[in-house]
Specification:
The complex is a heterodimer of chains A (220) and B (587). Helices cover 34% and strands 7% of the residues of chain A. Chain A is built from 9 helices and 4 strands; from the N terminus they run E-H-E-E-E-H-H-H-H-H-H-H-H. The two termini of chain A are 17 Å apart. About 5% of the residues of chain A have low confidence. With 587 residues, chain B is α/β, with parallel strands linked by helices. In chain B, the strands form 6 sheets. In chain B, strands 1, 2, 3, 11, 12, 13, 14 and 24 form an 8-stranded mixed beta sheet that branches. Chain B has a 6-stranded antiparallel beta sheet with strand order 8-17-18-19-16-22, with helices on one face. A 4-stranded mixed beta sheet of chain B has the order 5-4-21-20, covered by helices on one side. The longest helix of chain B has 20 residues. The mean pLDDT of chain B is 97. The chains are: A mainly alpha (220), B alpha/beta (587). At the A-B interface, helix 7, helix 8 and helix 9 of A face helix 2, strand 5, helix 11 and strand 20 of B.
Chain lengths: 220, 587
């Protein structure tokens, strides 16, 4: 067992949002307090986690609203990588491998998501200490790599997944786009509100079903 | 190897076809019926907490486990095939209910001329107009033969819709181009969300004949002739890749299992992975003796049976026949052999992605709620000036709006794919984007077929199925035509910007198209050019029936499930009424 690593986030950086710990105890931080939260990491080292957190330049926090940082995308990605997806449980991994296959055959390489991240993050060492514009430049250098495409996809997942997966904290992603989550019935509304935004208050799967659902990253 | 005591019927696969056959044989006869399903158990009511896009849509929780078994693909027989290492262009299901659990429940029938495609096309256009290397065939059944069985499938599922042709009488508001129906749909059309209703208006103003998508996401509570009740749809939007949380979407587990569970003569064994059909080899007339499977504990088991029904997913049917040496494998060089021929997919894509000024509230809807039109389907429009045959339907379904899958689609005027500019544009367009989909006919060709891959194996060491598959000019030209029509419709709907589909190049295994593959064990009237007769009975092994879309000689543009169910009913009747009295060739 490797030494347990933590991602430490200050309250100011995530202001007023929910953060889930490893065992899903919920901490609510307020921007006014000086407290910080230490999130135990399942896969990343602390320095890797900081780089991934900074890579929220993909989905930045800006005047259009909160982004990957507030949604906890780095925590989400850490859990995915430690789980069956990161270990390539969902892919056919028998050889021989054709690393340079045409794109229409999909990812044919041997590397697992864990290996792709570990390798890709080497190029982003110290990323969190760069200025925003420098970070964007660094990402432009790698934006056609498989690592970046995974990071972009996983960042979107971390923005909009059900909060039980560790991202979309406090449903910030769903609030941004007006997605209500798993709403049990739209029967009375589906053929109304034509041409105008209808935005029911978001609720998570656990809130809607009042059941504790096991996410895939906690299986096996 | 453990040998079990013999059963009357063994059914390989517990999806729509396998469980429908189990229900029919189990309730109409006293035969002992054993269903072998390689996936896990499921039942109605399992889906109360599955509405999680990440695990179900992105991580494919309900699908076949590709880490164990996948298929390989090459575009023509000169290439080396590569395995499809992750799910992409189609989604095979696994577990009780199969792909019938995670479907969208779109339920059109096929056009009558599809069943006689070869003879009708030659009659109208002459054989010179057909693609040179086509492998089109007639089915050996006609629409008129199948109509009573389509009607039974309608009632079984409680399909919602509006008839456009009842016994030859055209009805406005329904699909006036459809084949005759003996009765109106069992339940009225689903509610029509905003995006789909805009499409209906635009289609009418352009002179088309739009109609509500026939849907097995039933519009109101329904009790079928077996006494099985389901509630009406609540338009939560969690249909495709999910099981229905309330059971409004007809699925094998909520439509067939409630009947099967009451029958003591039917058993369902899960975790049972059939590796071989055991048979007495013979050139002309053979006999299947049973199946060998690996059970959930890893033990090898021989299950002898009098009658064997192969009812797994379409591609897996062909693979098991090939692995078992049942029938002669197709050789594209000589045209000899019939097993594996006529592999088709469906020409399915988002023809136009339309960006609107107003929000669409796309989180509300269902897999099959929407509007479609058949004016450009089959041979219903003038092809004299066109460079292709046949066609397809255009549809505006209000089906998929889940944010991980849908976020980030922006008009071409936005160049960024990440960062602030992209984020801002994507936020704006997230709920202002709608897709007009095309589902077109994929003709059969001599060069599109299946055999066993010489390199890649599954987790037991059995060869994977190899697909040799690519699009031809007929599909590419059809796609161009459909894209232009969809662009017109999108503009008529008032879209501010529209992105056309980029067109068909080589077959792309990473773009989800549909899970509608056909062929491999096709039906027909000649044992030289088909694997099963028009009752889906194997030509050589009269105690072996092969159900499902593997029997379709070619794709017929529409989604296949009602036709699959109709053919299964017809086979069940033939077994009960004729075969059991005289177990011999039915044709």
């Amino acid at each position: 067992m490797r030494r347990r690593e933590f991602l430490t986030l200050s309250a100011a950086s995530i202001g007023g949002v929910l953060v889930y710990s490893l065992d899903r105890e919920v901490f609510r931080l307020s921007a006014q307090t000086s407290k910080s939260v230490r999130i135990p990491l399942r896969f990343f080292t602390q320095s890797e986690a900081l780089s991934v957190a900074a890579a929220s330049r993909i989905f930045p926090s800006d005047e259009a609203g909160p982004g990957a940082r507030e949604a906890g995308a780095a925590v989400y990605i850490d859990r995915q990588l430690a789980g069956p997806w990161g270990r390539d449980r969902y892919r056919y991994t028998h050889g021989p491998f054709e690393e340079n296959a045409p794109a229409e055959f999909g990812h044919q390489g041997k590397a697992t998501p864990q290996q792709i991240y570990r390798q890709g993050l080497k190029a982003l060492k110290g990323f969190d200490r760069l200025k925003a514009a420098e970070q964007d430049d660094a990402l432009k250098q790698i934006e056609t790599t498989l690592f970046f495409l995974l990071l972009r996809q996983n960042t979107i997942e971390g923005m909009f997944c059900d909060p039980m997966h560790g991202g979309n904290i406090d449903m910030v992603g769903w609030q941004l786009i007006g997605f209500p989550g798993p709403r049990m019935s739209n029967y009375d509304d589906v053929d109304k509100h034509f041409g105008e935004a209808f935005r029911p208050k978001p609720a998570s799967l656990r809130q809607v079903t009042r059941r504790k659902v096991s996410p895939s990253e906690d299986l096996e | 190897m453990k040998t079990l005591s013999s059963v009357d019927v063994v059914i390989i696969g517990g999806g729509w076809t396998g469980l429908l056959m189990a229900k029919e044989l189990g309730s109409r006869t006293a035969l002992s019926v054993a269903v072998l399903e390689r996936g896990g158990p499921r039942k109605a009511g399992d889906y109360g907490d599955d509405m999680d896009e990440l695990d179900y849509t992105i991580r494919f929780r309900m699908m076949q486990d590709v880490s164990q078994e996948t298929v390989t693909l090459r575009h023509d027989s000169s290439q080396r095939a590569l395995p499809l290492r992750q799910h992409g262009s189609f989604l095979p299901g696994s577990g009780v209910g199969g792909a019938g659990e995670h479907w969208s429940a779109v339920c059109p029938r096929y056009l009558p001329d599809c069943f006689e495609l070869l003879s009708r096309s030659i009659e109208k256009y002459g054989s010179k107009r057909l693609p040179e290397d086509h492998a089109i065939q007639d089915w050996g059944v006609t629409y008129d033969d199948l109509e009573p069985f389509y009607a039974r499938a309608d009632l079984l599922l409680g399909i919602s819709g509006k008839a456009g042709n009842i016994r030859g009488k055209q009805i406005e508001g329904g699909n006036i181009f459809e084949g005759w129906r003996s009765a109106e749909y069992p339940t009225p059309p689903t509610k029509i969300p905003y995006f789909s209703s805009m499409f209906a208006e635009a289609a009418k103003s352009l002179g088309y004949h739009p109609y509500p998508v026939p849907a097995a996401t039933t519009s109101r509570a329904y009790t079928n002739p077996d006494g099985v009740s389901r509630p009406g749809c609540t338009y939560c939007g969690y249909c495709e890749t999910f099981g229905c949380m309330i059971g409004a979407k007809s699925q094998p587990t909520n439509t067939l299992l409630p009947v099967i569970e009451k029958r003591k003569n039917v058993s369902i064994c899960t975790g049972a992975w059939v590796r071989r059909i055991v048979h007495d080899a013979s050139e002309s007339q053979g006999r299947a003796r049973g199946v060998v499977y690996i059970d959930a504990s890893g033990q090898e088991v021989f299950q002898p049976a009098e009658l064997i029904v192969l009812a797994s997913w379409t591609l897996n049917n062909t693979r098991l026949l090939l692995l078992s040496g049942v029938g002669k494998a197709y050789d594209p060089a000589t045209g000899k052999g019939s097993l594996g021929r006529n592999l088709t997919h469906q020409v399915a894509f988002s023809a136009a992605t339309a960006f609107f000024e107003r929000p669409l509230n796309r989180f509300m809807g269902s897999g099959a709620s929407g509007i479609m039109l058949s004016d450009l389907d089959g041979d219903l429009f003038d092809h004299s000036e066109l460079a292709f045959l046949r066609g397809g339907t255009l549809a505006a379904r209000s089906a998929r709006s889940l944010p991980i899958s849908e976020y980030g689609v922006v008009p071409k005027s936005v160049k960024a794919t990440w960062g602030s500019e992209w984020k801002k544009a994507a936020l704006h367009y997230y709920d202002r984007t709608g897709r007009i989909g095309f589902s077109g006919e994929h003709l059969a060709y001599k060069g599109n077929y299946m055999d066993l891959d010489p390199v890649y194996k599954d987790h037991f060491g059995d060869s994977l199925l190899r697909l040799t598959l690519d699009w031809q000019e007929n599909e590419r030209k059809m796609a161009e035509y459909a894209i232009a029509k969809a662009m017109e419709l999108a503009r008529e709907m008032g879209a501010k910007e529209v992105t056309p589909f980029s067109g068909l190049r080589s077959y792309d295994a990473t773009r989800y198209q549909s899970s509608h593959l056909q062929g491999g064990a096709i039906m027909g009237s000649s044992p030289e050019r088909s694997v099963v007769n028009p009752y889906l009975q194997h030509w050589q092994f009269s105690n072996l029936f092969v159900l499902g879309a593997s029997s379709f000689p070619q794709n017929a543009s529409a989604n296949p499930t009602p036709t699959i169910l109709a053919l299964t009913y017809r086979t069940a009747d033939a077994i009960v009424d004729r075969y059991l009295k005289n177990p011999a060739a039915l044709a």
